[in-house]
Amino acid sequence: MSSYKSKLDPVHAEWWRADELGVQPHEILENLVRQIEEDQSYRYAAYREWAKLFGADPDVLGGETVGLDELHQNELANTIETLHAQVFKNNVVPGVSTSEADWEEWQRGKAYSRWIEGVFDRADVHYDAIPRAGLDTLVYGTGFIKIGHEEDEDGVVSITFSRVDTRLMSVDRLEARAGKPRNLFQKDYVDRFKLLADYGCESEDFYVPPGMTGREAAEERVRLISQCTSTMDPDMPVGGKMSCDMLTIREAWHLPSKPGADDGAHAIWIGNCTLVFKQYTWNRFPFIILRHGQRLGGFYGESAVKRLAPTQRQFNKLNTKIDEAQDIMGVPRIIVDRGAHIERSHLDDIPGGILESDNINGIKERNATAVSQELYMERDAAPKKMRSLLGVSDFEVQNQLPQSMREISGPAMERWVDQGSARHSMFHKELERAVKDMAYLAIDYAEELQEKGKDLTVVSPSDERRSVDLLKFSDVKVDKKRMRLRVQPMNQLPQTFSGKVDAYGKLLDMGVIDPKKFLRMVEIPDTSRDIDMLTSAENVIMRNISFMMKTGKYLPPLPYDNFDLIISLTTAFINDYRTREDADLEKVSMLGAYAAAAFAMKKGDLSGNSVAPPPPDGSGAPALPPEAAAAGMGAMPPPGAEMPGGMPPPPMEGAPPPPEGGAPIGPPGGPLPFPGQEGMMPVPPM
To answer: Which of 400-414, 434-448, 453-467, 592-606 is predicted most confidently?
Structure first.
């Protein structure tokens, strides 16, 4: 049996086995994290220097505040801010793509996408978390966004995404050599009285040491929180120790060794007390991590400030040299002959100096230049050099076109601007990956809340984008094994309105997209009504197909339906549906009858009595419309004959009899059979 001292040795750092080792988690974690921070003290010193070069206040880790006497023309900050604006100007929201989905599941996937959009809106993801973490990524090389939740007084639960200061995160350097550590540590500073309010009570989520009851553990936490001192953390800012009662609180996560393993752990502690210690089941940390630059190894990204720092320092040095030279040599001098008998007192009311000479004719230059022209040119070239290092154009910084490009066309200008974005494609892809990670984390978190009896409801744009919907997670949830989140690559799309019109207009001219898809892609303001009118016929038909597939009840075409669209959409749906292993031939036959009735009505039989033209072989069995037969649907049985599987034929003499109670033809009650589309009008009766 090892001694108590050896258990606390950082070499024995298996803090997730604290109960098994007979110690409290904080007794291992406090020493372990301090050793990690000491081992990487060089990193935190670099963070302070990079923040100072950017112009920020690095006081969080005890550094000195930037003074006014240290400020220079900060071209480094200008370049960083321009790159930040280029990459983070788009509000990227991933869309749900379902696998082998029918129309109803596709609609559910659309609702799922809008649920994710509502989560992002509620958490101000694109206005707070991503921009701030993005700036951390450029300054420090790595940015962190943490997922959590909050509950208001009415019990409404919301998912939160909050930026976490990179300087407060740490990993073991050796464990993270491949970029995938299994332990992650965070620290923060919290007011003592808030800790007492949060942890000074009984809860099943709080740590109870062995041999204690919940009440005894709560009383012990209150005592230890009251005794804890700020001086336990040497990085605590001096101001935090003097003007407020702040304590250092730390958090640790250990990932399970494999899916389903019970060795994952999550701990929260202060210097002398474990507050939370429980099992952690996720296979990833509750953080979204953004990195800048290409990594050959390790956990952290490359700081853009670090890349620009040598040029900014040289720029500062040249500015200082020029300023000093101008102070000394930039003052005008008056040179007079010593025997000219000029009273100096007559000239002392002007700035400058008076020099007397015995040989004034021998002086070649009366007012010398402060510095050489080459020094000015070198100084002026430094900002452009910094922008070229990060791929930022002069146009995007100065909002001025180069002289050589002032006569080019609008499309050429658009392509030139887009090429600048393409230089940052790696950073764009990193942002796209991070946004998808945020969505997956939100889904995992919502599932965890659902297991606790809390169904997450968000306000999101309606499918028509003219109003908002309340979407419940339980209503829109799609099996993760049958879905993928996808993001359109930002660097491959035009970023301006004129560029979108030009690019998508070419697709429209080529026939690749139709007018309604063009309107959706361009996102012209106030076109929702036009889009609704253009897509209404398609929506009604797909709604009918979905209803028949779901319920097995036949719905006939109506005289004012788009018969050509019914034939084409139904044919395409059947061909897609028949590729599935679980395809139901009875439903295929029912949809075939729907298309055949549309063909008959298109030919003038508005009653639907003549389902299809007689077959060429004279057998009396009606064939499908030529449009459908050519697509490979096969022939339909004649009216009155049994369909495959013994299903009775659909009634073709007008509308089928209404269900009990005289309800009109259409989905019961009128609402669509998929979430997020409530309130639409039912299909009118025949």
So the answer is: 434-448
What global pTM score does this model have? 0.69
Q: Which helix (H) or strand (E) holds 184?
A: strand 183-191
Residue-wise pLDDT for 211-239, tens only, equals 899 899 999 999 999 988 765 566 655 44
pLDDT at 650 over 80: no
Q: Which two tokens stand for residue 143?
A: 């940015």
Range in 178-182, 509-513, 545-549 with the lowest mean pLDDT? 509-513
Mean per-residue pLDDT over the chain, rounded:
75
Please name every residue paired with 142 in a beta bridge, in sequence order, or none if there are none.
291
Q: Do the bridges between strand 353-357 and strand 333-337 make them parallel or antiparallel, or are there none, so unpaired?
A: parallel
CA separation (Å) from 45 to 49, 235, 603, 653?
6, 11, 81, 84
SS (H, E, C) 523-554: CCCCCHHHHHHHHHHHHHHHHHHHHHHHHCCC
Tokens of 236: 């605590």
261 Cβ contact list (under 8 Å, min separation 6): none
- Beta-bridged to residue 188, according to DSSP, are 249
Beta-carbon contacts of 263 under 8 Å, excluding residues fewer than 6 positions away, are 16, 17, 254, 256, 257
- The token duo for 120 is 């992002």
Whether 92 has a pLDDT exceeding 60, the answer reads yes
Token match 């001086």: residue? 231
What's the token pair of residue 623?
Answer: 């064939």
Dmax (CA) for the chain in angstroms is 134
Distance CA 619, CA 72 (A): 93
CA distance 491 to 432: 10
Which residue, 275, 245, 250, 277, is CA-closest to 264?
277
Q: What share of the chain is helix, strand, coil (3-state, %, to 5)?
A: 50, 10, 40
**Which segments of 366-424 does DSSP mark as H helices, in order?**
373-390, 394-398, 410-422
For the segment 565-581, what is each residue's pLDDT rounded down to a tens digit? 899 889 988 888 888 77
CA distance 491 to 494: 8
Residue located via tokens 């009440």: 215
Q: How far apart are CA 644 and CA 637, in angstroms?
A: 9
Tokens linked to 629: 């037969």
Say which DSSP state 623 is in. P
Local structure of residue 127 (DSSP, 8 states): I
CA 406 to chain centroid, in Å, comes to 36
Measured between alpha carbons, how far is 518 from 516 in angstroms, rounded to an integer?
5
* Backbone region of residue 427 per phi and psi (left: phi > 0; alpha: psi in -120 to 50; beta: other values): alpha
Q: Which own/partner contact pairs does 243-247 have at CB distance under 8 Å and 24+ positions apart?
A: 244/191, 245/191, 245/192, 245/193, 246/189, 246/190, 246/191, 246/192, 247/189, 247/190, 247/191, 247/192, 247/195, 247/271
142 φ, ψ to 5°? -145, 135
pLDDT over 80 at 602, yes or no: yes
By CB atoms closer than 10 A (0-12, 13-18, 19+), residue 374 is exposed
Alpha helices in 303-424 (DSSP H): 304-329, 373-390, 394-398, 410-422
User: Percent of the chain scored above 70 by pLDDT?
Assistant: 64
Is 204 in a helix, a strand, or coil? coil
Closest by CA to 280, choosing from 269, 268, 267, 266, is 266
